[in-house]
Amino acid sequence: MGKRLILLGAPGSGKGTWSKIISDEKGLAHIATGDLFRAELAAETPLGCEVKSYMEQGALVPDELTIKLVEKALTDKNASNGFVLDGFPRTIPQAEALGELLEKRGLAIDVVINLIIDESILIERTLSRLVCIKCGQPYNAKNMAPAVEGTCDHCGGNVVHRSDDTEETLRKRLEAYHLSTAPLIDYYGNRDLLVAFSNDGPPSDETRNRLFALIDGAKGKA
Ligand code: ADP
Ligand code: ZN
Q1: Closest alpha carbon to 67 in 104, 34, 48, 94
Q2: What is the residue with the minimal CA distance to atom 6 of ligand 1?
Q3: How many Å apart are CA 222 and CA 217, to the nearest integer?
Q4: What's the whole-number mean pLDDT along residues 7-13?
Q5: 48-75 residue pLDDT tens
Q6: Which end of the chain is more exposed for a tag (fewer CB within 10 A), N or C?
């Protein structure tokens, strides 16, 4: 059975980039709440309209809406074969709800990878990052640009700068991270599930090998 992983980290710490690589190479479902919310927004669904103002302001979407979205994704994406959670949980109540959702299915998290990055790099990295609006593939104008400007290498979708990747919104998202998400480091640390992973450089083979060794070595909890 595939592993069940959580990627934890500040905005711009590389969660999206690495969870895509891990889920592609290991055949795991990729569940990224930010991507799911952006898809709802683009399709102008009722949920999309509800979450719009939170996302634009760099605030967290309320737990109740986020948990419902993840519950649906766990079912839709056949997550019983393993998954990578990217951007969820982001609060203690979300982590508790996730624990209950998995328990109901007889599943548990194998490892929580805490991506660690210097905050000064993080702001610079986030301001130059780009994303495919169709498949969620992250790019960076400085060191990870698509082969053809504005076009996704993987799906041909439009590659754009996210409207919430401005300095002002990023500062608010960082605040939300320190206030609501950083407590998850202790939460999962206390459960013996947390591993720290330094991710200061651009994606490289060295980082990939270090990360995959960590995942392969992670022992699942009963
Ligand atoms: P980043 O990690 O770069 O901040 P994401 O794409 O993960 O970006 O999230 C973008 C926005 O979507 C967040 O700022 C927030 O408004 C919303 N969001 C995503 N995941 C969650 C979550 N687990 N809980 C609450 N809000 C979320
Ligand atoms: Zn794409």
Answers
A1: 94
A2: 34
A3: 16
A4: 95
A5: 999 999 999 999 999 999 999 999 999 8
A6: C
